[in-house]
């Protein structure tokens, strides 16, 4: 799909810049004007408005939009100003400054970057920017004095020569730190009398300023210099080693028991860091077995569509099998639930239920809403059995959506262009009519009524979801996760007042969104957050993570599944921290009440990896990492340093296979 850059830019300014507290009108206006996609390599244009730095030529980075805005605001750039930028990189920040100031002088040490920036700025019509190649750590004497100086790379201390090049009243904003990659953003203001004042603007992560007044050039090291020794483990690593609970092997009976500490919760949410990792499925199966056997959990709710999970539910609860032409989980991504690890759990659950009374049998339900067509069919089929006249009305009402049932996104597009949801009223009326007849219909077969009602809810929510898709990702994401939460509540409610559930869904759904970039910058919520808000302490959220290995995923939506290598985790990420602690498999209890020190240390924003059904190792940092405060996001984290792809089952049932395929083989 072609990216709508002006819209993406507008959203960037609103969500990443204004919402985070940047108020300076000059900055907001400039950020709204500069086309950031023109300053990144072509292959990364689609990520130009993401909330992160991106790689550019010469192994350097273009800064995160927010940090550019923050620095320009701190430097209080005004029309008429002469500004020096040190570390021009792509030229993007220079363009933002040039939109406000009278003249911008830019120094960049890499010639390729300086040339590219010059060309880009010229092509975009910036006539007030001068770019030169060289070491900018000593400033630009001939062009001084400056009203403002900004450095986009970190030095060990503020070079005095730069302060001297400030005009009276001038501002210098630059990262300073005693290691090359971790700094504090510092602002120095030169008073009219030459006196300087210094302000600390908080922690930042910049590349090092390499030069005479900065750090030595690492590539200039003499070849016979000894390699630096592996550093001593730092305090975080030592703490992780001390507080981690080493887990037994996945097939060891004791594995599940390590999670008993969370069994008092009413809902235990089990995450996964990818949709295609065997260890995450096997671990969730082991934990769920324990919660069911030893703690009376009655429901397993999974991130799958309701009708698909209903096939499994009937199978595990020994209910009569309904004819399902496609079997369960036939739509992309099939491997997410058609895999040997999940199938083994299903077989176990069926065995567990075999000796129990029907009312005591543990069920499975699907939380997702991508089954518009099948759900419509399920409601109509149900009514055909219990009330053929109502089935006729249902066909008429759903008839509005039928032309789009195969390509529901097209419905969303139409709804947007017409300005309203043509089928909204019909799907709502259908659900209401069904619920009003609960007593009449439910008397005949309560189970089937609940199933039909849930499918009717799904159709209602899916209609809204596809409509919202065109208004922006956050709205549709929120509708989807609200649907998941409501489905969980209905399913729990149908099982009795105190029924307890295990949820299997991705970390991005399970971990409380309020403590991740999703919530901070995009206003997204998730089922983990909604559960926390409703159940408080009676919910446990457990995230899962890995450093490397293989994963089953596709290159693109609807593409074939491939087994891919997972890129080793990034320096500075939570995953790298766990990898360095070197205990695997391992469970970390992150709750403030039980592990105050660990909770405190793992509560600051750091990168965390999220792989879904699509995996793009080439652009891994920008496609798969986002910031999160891990110990606030999850109550616990299960770590598997090396992991393997799930064992996918054949995509289509073989001839003569039972209707319950791929279960009950
Ligand atoms: N503001 C830039 C942008 O919008 O693309 C981001 C620049 S990047 C974070 C930092 C840049 O500083 C790199 O391109 C690096 O080559 C440059 N750099 C590092 N040391 C330098 C020095 N002594 N003089 C000039 N540039 C330097």
From TrEMBL:
Subcellular location: Cytoplasm
Catalytic activity: [protein]-L-isoaspartate + S-adenosyl-L-methionine = [protein]-L-isoaspartate alpha-methyl ester + S-adenosyl-L-homocysteine
UniProt-listed Enzyme Commission number(s): 2.1.1.77
Assigned keywords, A-Z: Cytoplasm, Methyltransferase, S-adenosyl-L-methionine, Transferase
Main localization of the protein described in the UniProt heading: cytoplasm
Basic and acidic residues composition-biased segments: 223-233
Active site: 63
Alphabetical GO biological process terms: methylation; protein repair; response to antibiotic
Molecular function per GO: protein-L-isoaspartate (D-aspartate) O-methyltransferase activity
Domain of life: Bacteria
GO cellular component terms given for this protein: cytoplasm
UniProt region (Disordered), positions on chain: 212-237
Task of the protein: Catalyzes the methyl esterification of L-isoaspartyl residues in peptides and proteins that result from spontaneous decomposition of normal L-aspartyl and L-asparaginyl residues. It plays a role in the repair and/or degradation of damaged proteins.
Family: Belongs to the methyltransferase superfamily. L-isoaspartyl/D-aspartyl protein methyltransferase family.
HAMAP family membership: PIMT
Protein name: Protein-L-isoaspartate O-methyltransferase
Species of the source: Pseudoxanthomonas helianthi
The gene coding this protein: pcm
